[in-house]
Specification:
about 240 residues, alpha/beta, 5-stranded mixed sheet, 3-stranded mixed sheet, about 45% helix, globular
Length: about 240
């Protein structure tokens, strides 16, 4: 795989089905079973195992709508335990800081690592080693997406989750970037809402690749400066 020599190299680390992974850490019997975690008032589904996703249970779906599927398939159901999740999140972030102090914690289960200075090693193999050690030291499985910008690292992380054997994906290669962006729906782009997706389609932009090759001024007119920044980030220019 040939990679363009971008100025920056960013890794997005995302804990896989984080709340479910936390529950499984202390309850090994549910590791291969479909599992969902509910929000504070047990109203909505806020985390799903891959087995639960395969049953068609949707993220954010009200519990009562999914109840029939849950009962029929004997899905394990847990109420949120944010003190537990917060503690395990801090353990994961502390572990990541061992590899590089240049870390930006984005949410309870996500962090950006600036790995620009890792020029001396194979980034994919290094990411696999980071993933192995985080799992060993915290018990939490992670996915790692590598890109020249935060937006592309986000896209790469989404792709990494499709590779269960490694959960790592490097999008810096031009062919990889183009292929993945062509398959990415507008609403699946970080920062693009359903309403903004409709606006983009009105000006002929149908997917993420179209957004990367479109006219930045036209995109800015449709979406504000945020859309223009996404365009540049898709082209490897950090905004």
């Amino acid at each position: 795989m040939s990679s363009i020599q971008y100025t920056k190299k960013i890794a997005l680390v995302d804990c896989n089905s984080f709340y479910v992974s936390c529950e499984r850490l202390f309850n090994p019997k549910i590791r291969k079973k479909p599992v969902v975690v509910l929000s504070n008032n047990d109203g909505c589904i806020v985390s799903r195992s891959n087995e639960a996703k395969a049953l068609g249970i949707k993220m954010g779906e009200p519990y009562f709508k999914a109840k029939d599927i849950i009962v029929k398939n004997k899905v394990e159901v847990f109420s949120s335990n944010y003190s537990l999740y917060g503690d395990l999140s801090r353990r994961v972030m502390r572990t990541l800081k061992r590899f590089n102090s240049e870390i930006e914690v984005y949410s309870i289960d996500e962090a950006f690592l600036d790995i620009t200075d890792f020029y001396y090693c194979d980034l994919t193999e290094t990411a696999k080693e980071i993933r192995r050690l985080v799992k060993q030291w915290t018990g939490i499985p992670i996915s790692i997406g590598i890109g020249p910008t935060k937006t592309l690292a986000k896209v790469a992380n989404r792709q990494a989750k499709k590779y269960e054997s490694s959960n790592v994906f490097d999008i810096r290669g031009e062919s990889e970037r183009v292929e993945v962006l062509k398959d990415l729906e507008l609403e699946d782009i970080w920062g693009i809402s359903t309403r903004w997706g409709r606006r983009l389609r009105k000006i002929g932009i149908q997917n993420a690749y179209d957004l990367s090759t479109g006219n930045p001024r036209q995109i800015r007119k449709a979406l504000s400066i945020v859309g223009e920044r996404i365009h540049y980030e898709f082209n490897g220019k950090s905004c």
